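pinging the channel bc i need a second pair of eyes. not urgent but kinda urgent?? the chain im working w is below, pasted from the shared doc
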Amino acid sequence: MNYSDIDVAVIGSGPAGMAAAIKAKEEGAEHVLILERQEQLGGLLHQCVHNGFGLFYFGQDLTGPEYGHRFAEKVKDLGIQVLLETMVTRISADRQITAVNNREGVLCLMPRSLVLAMGCRERSRGQLNLPGTRPAGIFTAGTAQRFVNVEGWIPGKKVVILGSGDIGMIMARRLTLEGAEVKAVVEILPYIGGLTRNEVQCLHDFHIPLLLEHTITETHGQQRLEAVTIAKVNKDKKPVNGSHQMIECDTLLLSVGLIPENELSRMAGVALDPLTGGPGVDQWRETSVSGIFAGGNVVHVHDLVDEVSWEAEIAGTSAARFAKKEELEKEKKILKPGRNIRYVVPQTISAQHDVTLYARVKDMEENVTLKMGDIFSKSLRVVKPGEMLKIDLSRSQLRQLKDDAVELSIEGAKRRQ
């Protein structure tokens, strides 16, 4: 294989990595290389056998493997070079990549530009400080998803799910279909952490109990999980005395959030945004390190895979332009999260081009107005953290910005009780 004279290198081959590589190739990058640590393209798409993928990108309702297959076929048709079972161990600030596999051993690559597309990982039990014993039978929802959909194993027969993230709700339905009994989905917040469509299709349609404003206070069992104790929580998220109850179960799934995977980004000196956990990027998805771009869940966690692919295409296009030594607009205006906005991506924009902003709120509120300075205002019936806000701004709107920093905020709100 030819590893010299690489125009664009992409780390990761999930929906973000493949979309970025395809777009870079279509934009004129001659030598595009994908580095993937797994044995196949697609990231985690192969274990997401449920439908709901591609509704916006392809206009069709696809499963995860079908969605990934379409991109993988295009990667092959365009002649994009792929290195599977290859682990990237280091990236330097000058874009030098150190990787290793069992065929060539250690590889040192120097691409002209680089796209980070490592995705995200699940928050583990150790990060929750979950009290109680440490028996077998406690898994992240994604691990259980792989067991059931790829390996063909059922993790348990009586299941409790902590957290109402999308993967957790989807696994509640999947395990029910496989004959397990899902005792409850336990959520500490007064609203779900995922999409409303998953609450309806996965929980309500299958009569799976959803316990809002509850949490697990203790796990029981020595060799194998035997039960969990749950309790109602107050406004400070502290257990309410006298509300404790024990639920017998042999399996506990954790669906308590996703974290962008950025160890390699730190090695390269990329500045991370503490609000998103991912790199701070401009509208071209360029990071603080020149020539290193990022897209998808490595930047911030998305709701839909279609949005992951679209954002990664921006990174792929920009990486190809950088490799061809084309100038990217550097005039930047800083976006700041205002009232009830947790974060905004991208963090900086140019006023010379149309741009799409992504944002999440901190708390659920009803009958609100989403505002950005004097250039954008939109009334919304309800906003909640589990559903991302998407704001399309035109060049003519952006040219009205007078200050170098502007806030995106939620106003006129009535907090939901």
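so The mean pLDDT is 94. and The first strand starts at residue 8 and ends at 11. — does that match what u expected or am i reading it wrong
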